[in-house]
Amino acid sequence: MRTLMMFVFGLALAAPLQAGDFLVTGRFEYEDKAWNEQGWTGEDPMRPVRHADVSIWNQSTGKLLGRGRTDDDGEFAVLASSKKPVTQLAARVDAETRHRAKQERAFPRLRVLGLTGETYVAWSATHHDPPFEQPVDLGTTSIPKVYAGSRDGNPFNVLDMAVAGFELLVGPEVGVEKRGRSLTILWPNVSGSYALGRRAWIGSADGYDDSVILHEVGHLVHNVYSDSDNPGGLHFFGDSDQDPRLSFGEGWATAFAGLVLDGLGQPAWYVDSKGDAQVGDALLTMSLETSEPYFDAALGAGDEVAVACVLYDMLDRDSGGPGDAPDDDPFTAQSNAEGMHAWSAWWDVFTGPVAKAARSSLNNTWDGWVALHGDGDALTPLADVFGSRQIVFQNDAFEPNQTRKQARQIELSQAGEWLTGLTLYAREAGSAKPGTGDRDWYSVALDAGSRVSIETRYPDGTFDAATQADTWLALRSPSGKLRGKAEWGGSGRNAALLDIPVDESGLWTLLVRTRNKVHRYGRYELRVQRVN
Fold first, then answer.
1. Residue 479 domain boundaries
2. What is the pTM of this model?
3. CATH number of the domain encompassing residue 60
4. What are φ and ψ of residue 313, in 5° steps?
5. Fewest CB within 10 A of the end CB: N or C in the chain?
6. 259 and 327 in one domain?
């Protein structure tokens, strides 16, 4: 039979695909923007649209004919069905993973929306040229960049980063089995990137900033699987005096970004670049493996870079990724708690003690590890990782000195020197209890008629804390009378009792503790010296 072909508005109306079931294949890819630690490289590679929803449509009638999803290579093979012949056929890919979430119990439904609430979609070319062979191959559809003013991005890159993040969690290293939740990511947002509950907003300039996108996905992970007490507010790399809840929340999100990039075979760098530049122009860059360029400054549990590097070093692979220095810590290889992979051990802490903590911070990571996995051989490499960023949650050399009767005698400072290596942390060996509530008692011999000043300071007298300690002082005479107390007076959060008259000779006792419910642990230094 001769096939009659007509042309309407330049489109060929083909011999129809006959009614029934038929297979439709094809591939979706998106235009990416390549980066390194300096920013953009100038290359725009094509990447597969992975595990996104695909639907097959009769374009002439607007009827849905079948559903499926893309695979790791962006390819799809969807069984379609029609009760009537089809003359125009097309596939649509949605920036969401509803189909995968239905198939895999633990994988969440991820959606990337525009700010007006619509899901991003892209269409293949309409198939209307004869012959309709089976399977119907719609070929490869390339999805170009999307522009928000002068800034470029791609919603399918945003989706791909979210998919990569949750593939890490449901994969063999973590093995999350909890039913996935519906999570929404919106782009482009003129007020920057942030997350709240089960929704994240990606800034207009961050549509191609993989580490920024993954950072916000890390916040979603924290909110959904654990419990974040992050108070939010102003924060920046290089600040070591943050609220420990903030530094933990932001540090975890940054570490998560690096871990996902590491798993993708990319450098574990946090890079935030200008969205309207095509080459270079990194606004912020930091290596998770080496903490450069913040190596000398990123110290203490109140520093989000220090927290990020500690958590990354706990869980990264044994060798650095492309562009990284070789892994400099032995934690992953040596810290198998009770035969568990480090990720599994961490996940139990993250979803257990950290989630239950009233004011979760890096403190609860340490306490939770001790509570769940003990303080045996696995604790030494953990202490090494924490210690690499000067984070010390361990008894100091003066313990036990938690009662006045246990006060440890110290000497008056003779040349302005400080007593170093002190920590607000106390836990009995083998105990699963946290080290919270440490009370450090000291005694010092003083002569009546003299005057003394008692002070605490940050380690090495640094201006930027490098510790989360918030000290409180109390001084008692040999007869037990309270002669002074102070929560402030020193630099930063440090306490000082200045120019105190001594009216009794003998051993005076001094208490150092904290009354701050957030700054519960930390290192400090102490000095008692005569001022006359």
1. 404-530
2. 0.93
3. 2.60.40.10
4. -65, -25
5. N
6. yes
Which position has the token pair 């919106």? Answer: 186
Contact (CB, 8 A) for 138 and 90: yes
Query: How does DSSP assign 468-486, residue by residue?
Result: ----EEEEE-TT--EEEEE
Per-residue pLDDT of the chain (532 residues; tens, 9 = 90+): 322 222 222 333 445 677 789 999 999 999 999 999 999 999 999 999 999 999 999 999 999 999 999 999 999 999 999 998 888 999 999 999 999 999 999 999 999 999 889 999 999 999 886 556 778 999 999 999 999 999 999 999 999 999 999 999 999 989 999 888 899 999 999 999 999 999 999 999 999 999 999 999 999 999 999 999 999 999 999 999 999 999 999 999 999 999 999 999 999 999 999 999 999 999 999 999 999 999 999 999 999 999 999 999 999 875 554 444 445 555 554 455 667 788 888 999 999 999 999 999 999 999 999 999 888 776 888 898 999 999 999 999 999 999 999 999 999 999 899 999 999 999 998 899 999 999 999 999 999 999 999 999 999 998 888 999 999 999 999 999 999 999 999 999 999 999 999 999 999 999 999 999 999 999 999 999 999 8
Angle (CA) 457 458 460, round 5°:
100
Q: Look up residue 297 and give its two tokens.
A: 């400054």
